[in-house]
């Protein structure tokens, strides 16, 4: 049977950086450890004045095509996932294709283009669309480019301001992939929720605390749905579990919940019973609140066990390394988590070929999706080609005054023109407005 999955990945970070403990915390009057330890973030990536979702997406896609030696005729599909779109009709993928056509002789006239919206899960849904298109045999031997690109900015003063970020992930989806093969099995957890939304507005309306609960509830539903077809999961089955990462502290909660679920009725629960007892079962309680309280107590104890902490350090923590430095990239975040863990494997010379990932995506509004991935033989070479560390190190470190100006410059309700803080180098840049209000781009050598 044809294997289909991610053949290659590229990451493009916004060119600016906001230091959360050093620059943001003092202005907020908060303890820096709220950011580094609580939320788990050191920095957020920001777009410079000439960057937006199109430039970042096109730059990631150009690196991908260039490195893989691809021409436009090799690509049958370009899908962009974003929740930062600026046009309700013309999709971002047409702008990206227009950018790429400036640097290639060929064109993408025969490539299907679209834009996917379902908050942060849209990146994974676009991956699905490409996977299904190839599996159905409609691709004529061509590959798909999926781009997840966002400027995840919150209104000034919103609690989410600490979790901002900006960047793009471009992925090449093909037959016989070099990086990961996707499982046919998928699980969904979806409900009509009002946790985070942007009703025709740039910055989100967020019920932050509730969004955390909705993420966990939908993720649990998705895991149960996945297990209904893939069989019960066990913590030792997956080398790593990359989750959607709005901030690492969120994944800390998801990891604990997932572990509790996976060890139920296993030898791990039995072995831990002497130390912390067995998991409370709903049927043993008359009262729902007493059951919830017992669960909370069990989770608090579980979190402190060496067994759990070792598993977390091995399986979850390496997924968070990049996220800690870039913040939330919305549609790209779960794909950054996957890249992070493969990078960890490369840096530690691990033999990951054939190992499994369990990938947990989430989008507010709300839906979670879980599928498995198998790491392919070519993963090492693909990940070695990433230059994300150099990109992160080259970011301009914003002062507080810079940050205020940059946030205003990207605020659609403000008309603020500022000097860029960085100099574009071999990349696409925003180049002003066209006669019908369209955004224009050019490649800077
Ligand atoms: N030292 C160590 N830890 C500290 C600390 C200190 N000095 N001060 C606070 N903390 C800890 C807190 O205990 C808390 O951790 P726990 O939840 O584990 O207890 C953590 O730091 C955050 O502190 P607060 O809860 O007080 O932070 P807050 O109220 O200012 O905001 C938030 C948190 C509500 C998540 C806010 O960042 C927010 O609204 N973010 C945007 C929404 C979001 O990302 N939601 C995630 C789920 S929805 C989703 O995933 C989709 C998406 O991408 C948006």
TrEMBL record:
A GO molecular function held by the record: hydroxymethylglutaryl-CoA synthase activity
Taxonomic superkingdom: Archaea
CDD domains per UniProt: init_cond_enzymes (cd00827)
UniProt keyword terms in alphabetical order: Acyltransferase, Isoprene biosynthesis, Transferase
Gene3D superfamilies: 3.40.47.10
InterPro entries: HMG-CoA_Synthase-like, HMG_CoA_synt_C_dom, HMG_CoA_synth_N, Thiolase-like
Hydroxymethylglutaryl-coenzyme A synthase C-terminal domain boundaries: 194-413
GO biological process annotation, one example: farnesyl diphosphate biosynthetic process, mevalonate pathway
Domain annotation Hydroxymethylglutaryl-coenzyme A synthase N-terminal: ranges: 4-175
PANTHER family, per the entry: 3-HYDROXY-3-METHYLGLUTARYL COENZYME A SYNTHASE (PTHR43323), HYDROXYMETHYLGLUTARYL-COA SYNTHASE (PTHR43323:SF2)
Family designation: Belongs to the thiolase-like superfamily. HMG-CoA synthase family.
Protein name, as recorded: Hydroxymethylglutaryl-CoA synthase family protein
